[in-house]
Amino acid sequence: METSEPPDEELVARTQAGDAAAFDELVVRFGPRLYGLVYNMTSNHEDTNDLLQEVFAKAYRSIKGFQRKSSFYTWMHSIAVHRTINFLKKRNRRVTMSLDDVDNGIANDPDFIEATSDHDPRHQANLGELQKKLNEAMMKLSHHHRAVVTMFDIQGMPHAEIAKILKISDGTVRSRLFYAHRQLQNYLQEFISG
Amino acid sequence: MTPEENISKIIRLKRYEQPPAGYFEGFLQEFQSRQNADFARPTFWEIVRDRASSLEMFFQAPRLAYAAVAAALAVAAVTFSVLPASRVSGNLADVRQPLTLASPQQVTIGGSLPVVMPVAGSPSVQYVLPASPASYASSRSF
Question: Is the ipTM of this complex over 0.90?
Answer without folding.
Answer: no
